[in-house]
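JOB MANIFEST
job_type = single_chain_structure
chain_count = 1
residues = 263
[input]
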Amino acid sequence: MDTPQSASTKLDDIDSDIATLQLWLSSSSYSHQERRMNLARLSCVRYQRYNLLEQPEDIDKAILDCAEAVLLPLPPLVDSDVCPWVVFCFLQLARFLLIRFRLTSQPEDLKYSIDYFRHLYHSDLSRDPVDVPRSQIITEFVEALGTHVQLEVDSATVTRTIEEMVTLCRGLLISDISGDDLVDVIVILKDSFLTSLKSGHVETIDQVVEYIREAISRCPAGSHTASNALADILTSCSTKLPLPNPWGTRRIHPGVMHSSGQQ
């Protein structure tokens, strides 16, 4: 844990970095080839400041930095040192919008966060070298979708969202994701499904249960969290789904419950 003195020193360093980057940005041209990189760095330092002080305006400013970086025109000759910063800023924009949604509950922030994660995933931009594993990007996308499920009331939308989550989670099974991180994803999927179940949405049960059963083999040995998640789902569904009739469709009159040999 940081002492008051170390936290103060860290804040001084962060504020110094912010001032240096702001000075560079204010004195450089809009078309400077390093502008996008320094905007990305500034957004990261602002996020560090937010983690230290928890002041929402730091997230607001980080979002503006990322938005400017994404909207900057690409130079005529794009090299490998430029493209990754575009992808990185796009990813940071999705992350920061999700954080701000949790602070302000503004639905537009969640909507655009999910849109940006989805664009990154489907456009395959997240395969560029941005020093962030693709599995981590998918995990954060699943987390954003899970947040959406907690708020959505339309049955069809909830079903589509959980189906998309399962598709993403299946992709993680063939990725470099760690066993511990996979457990976290299973918990997110479980919580999302149980939330939908409270409103009577059971359409995705087979997909969710099949995925978790398959994923359990990838989880760390001795970890019971994934198995407990599966048990929670099956237990909850047992109170929502009708039990099968042991007699099938045959109707039996109470008066004929004696054995066939009895007269």
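[summary]
Confidence is low (pLDDT under 50) at residues 243-263.
The two ends are 83 Å apart (CA to CA).
exit_status = 0
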